[in-house]
Amino acid sequence: MSNANPAKKIINNPLKCADELFEGLVLAYDGKARRVGTRSIVMNDLRPDAPALLVGGGAGHEPIYHGLVGKGMADGAAVGEIFAAPPPDIVLEAAQAVNRGKGVLFLYGNYAGDVMNFDIGAELAADEGINVKTVIIADDVCSAPPTEKHKRRGVAGLVPIVKLAGAAAQTVDTLDELVRIAQKACDNTRTVGVSTKPGSIPATGKPTFELADDVIGLGMGIHGEKGVGLIPMCTADELAAKILDLLFGDDLELKSGDEIVFFVNSLGSTHMMELLILLRGAKPILEARGIKIHQTIVDNIVTCQEMAGVSFSITKLDAELKKLWDLPCESVGYTKL
């Protein structure tokens, strides 16, 4: 078994990583966003009299979620501890800060702790007179079959979903319209991820699971979950084909002529070299099926500390989503000119 020690981390106190990285994140926004309360970040320049988009989740996946706050992206984010959901009081303080009288959309990944805490936060916000609605991201094809999509985890597909919802939040006038578009973005997004090495939690420094050198973990979670299966170690071209087979085999119904956003994401320590080689293997397969790539993203945006691995996310665009995608956005984690 491969149980190499996790990479050394340049930190101060391993029990204060979430607080200190959050303070650094606020500084990285150069005054365009501000800290609110315990651990929430909110844009300074918010469109007045508009529905608000609030994202959130645990720290340790940087730059998401809290790095996706910005112009044309989320209005604010509630941040939890490393790999832990933000508690309800942080969700409430974030909702209060982003609310401009038109209600707030909570948009986050499908994990039990996040669902529970954001639901309690929504109840607390309702007590304060804030209208809250929720859309849950569940794009992980491997974590449940199409017949049980409501059980799927939210993984790297959150990046195009937040971008599309963020664009909608800059243009629509009602919370219901924002919910509709965010849900459409979720319905049109699928992800498959694989891992070759586990990540770790800074407080323990230990790997979150074990993985032999001759296998690849299939469908791992971004909180260090070991995944749902194993496949033999293989070449990049073979792996690209296997991942796309799983995406094509789902219920997204991709057909010739469809346009997509194609996101190749590193889970933390997989290098750009490997991502580009995988992209090289994937693109001819997409072209052979007549699928048009409207935009390619190759980056490490949804991470799990030093986990090695990659995910492919596909977002199918219709005319409405394509128009929203083409709007510019700017954040620490993702910027589109």
From TrEMBL:
<dbReference type="Pfam" id="PF02733">
    <property type="entry name" value="Dak1"/>
</dbReference>
<dbReference type="GO" id="GO:0005829">
    <property type="term" value="C:cytosol"/>
</dbReference>
<dbReference type="GO" id="GO:0004371">
    <property type="term" value="F:glycerone kinase activity"/>
</dbReference>
<keyword id="KW-0418">Kinase</keyword>
<dbReference type="InterPro" id="IPR050861">
    <property type="entry name" value="Dihydroxyacetone_Kinase"/>
</dbReference>
<dbReference type="GO" id="GO:0019563">
    <property type="term" value="P:glycerol catabolic process"/>
</dbReference>
<protein>
    <submittedName>
        <fullName>Dihydroxyacetone kinase-like protein</fullName>
        <ecNumber>2.7.1.-</ecNumber>
    </submittedName>
</protein>
<feature type="domain" description="DhaK">
    <location>
        <begin position="13"/>
        <end position="334"/>
    </location>
</feature>
<dbReference type="InterPro" id="IPR004006">
    <property type="entry name" value="DhaK_dom"/>
</dbReference>
<keyword id="KW-0808">Transferase</keyword>
